TrEMBL record:
Origin superkingdom: Bacteria
Modified residues (N6-(pyridoxal phosphate)lysine): K194
Protein name (record): Phosphoserine aminotransferase
Chain's gene name: serC
Gene source species: Cytobacillus dafuensis
Compartments in which it is found: Cytoplasm
Length: 358
């Protein structure tokens, strides 16, 4: 069967071998006579999947033991609320760097909970870059950033220090794309549907020292402590999504780990950015060069009519998901971990051929 040339921004392509492994076990997981989604979440079989997913993530990202790994639901969007509910304590100020719509949404949720401060923003530059300078308010509870801006195609290369205030990052669209120094962060969250697996599970990696901040009168399911105390098994977790997360993590290990993945991601991004930069202004990259994302390559064509023609012909040629986000338009190729180099080459060839004909 021919696989689609899937450049969707999320949910996005998963490794074929992961889907095949899931298919093999679909009706009968480990001779249980049941599918994974039919297993009790209190069964030995499921508990082993749950534990393995946590262990693999801890190994692959070198997560120290003073950090908890939590599995939640509600997407990254629920984390926009849970972060301030748990960490924006009385008298403190939630600091936010605005680098796009997702960080704006995170800020809007925090404003409903407590005091906030915009520590930096690149909004006037149409979110083409990551701000260079950050000013932190007094009494800061934390600094919140979005490590990769899925819509605008920008990505942080160097992170602010967490020496004096906790650093919180929404890593929904670039977690697992490269090695990470976890200790540079106090809380990381990511919806799974880009590099981790299918939608349905949200991963939170939290420094245990932050857990004591959560007030007891928070609703049980909105308190990080509930997940930490019960190993994310207080209630029924999204078992199928966590199983698929485990398979994706096994795939990352088989591929050789994050250094290998990072190198491949750099190679893929370079193919597309070179194609843009060598097009003599036919393709115009949205992000400033030093802020370019290796996950989402955003670009425009030199006028709107030709953009529409490009998207139409790309669709006819089998390329899926190249339309830019509805809020910004233009084009976007999302090239997460599971996109093979070969598919990126095919897209670059198509872009070159289209340019030559037009
Ligand atoms: N943050 C980022 C960086 C995203 O890309 C997205 C979704 N594309 C979200 C947050 C929202 O995630 P969810 O749909 O899981 O709530």
């Amino acid at each position: 069967m021919q696989r689609a040339l899937n450049f969707n921004a999320g949910p996005a392509a998963l490794p074929v071998s992961v889907l095949q492994e899931a298919e093999k076990n679909w009706l009968n997981y480990h001779n249980s006579g049941m599918a994974v989604m039919e297993l009790s979440h209190r069964s030995k079989d499921y508990e082993a999947i749950h534990q393995k997913a946590q262990d693999l993530l801890r190994n692959i990202l070198s997560i120290p033991n003073n950090y908890e790994i939590l599995f939640l639901q509600g997407g990254a969007s629920l984390q926009f609320s849970m972060v301030p509910m748990n960490l924006l304590t009385e008298g403190k100020i939630g600091n936010y760097v605005l680098t796009g719509v997702w960080s704006e949404k995170a800020l809007q949720e925090a404003e409903k909970i407590g005091s906030t401060y915009i520590a930096a923003t690149s909004k006037v530059q149409k979110y083409r870059s990551i701000p260079n300078e950050i000013s932190i308010s007094k009494d800061a509870a934390y600094l919140h950033i979005t490590s990769n801006n899925t819509i605008y195609g920008t990505q942080w290369n160097q992170f602010p220090s967490n020496e004096f205030i906790p650093l919180i990052a929404d890593m929904s669209s670039d977690i697992l794309s490269k090695p990470l120094d976890i200790e540079n962060f106090d809380l990381i969250y990511a919806g799974a549907q880009k590099n981790l697996g299918p939608s349905g599970v949200t991963v939170v990696i939290i420094n245990k020292k932050l857990l004591s901040n959560s007030i007891d009168r928070l609703p049980t399911m909105l308190n990080y402590n509930t997940y930490a105390k019960h190993n994310s098994l207080y209630n029924t977790p999204p078992t199928l999504a966590i199983y698929l997360l485990k398979l994706v993590l096994e795939w990352v290990e088989q591929e050789g780990g994050l250094k290998v993945i990072e190198k491949r991601n750099e190679e893929k991004a370079k193919i597309l950015y070179d194609c843009i930069d060598e097009s003599e202004g036919f393709y115009i990259g949205h992000a400033e060069k030093e802020s370019r994302s290796k996950m989402n390559v955003t670009f425009n064509l030199n006028h709107d009519d030709i953009s529409l023609k490009f998207l139409q012909q790309a669709k006819e040629a089998g390329f899926i998901g190249l339309n830019g986000h509805r809020s910004v338009g233009g084009c976007r190729a999302s090239i997460y971990n599971a996109i093979p180099v070969d598919q990126v080459c095919q897209l670059a060839e198509f872009m070159k051929a289209f340019k030559n004909k037009n």
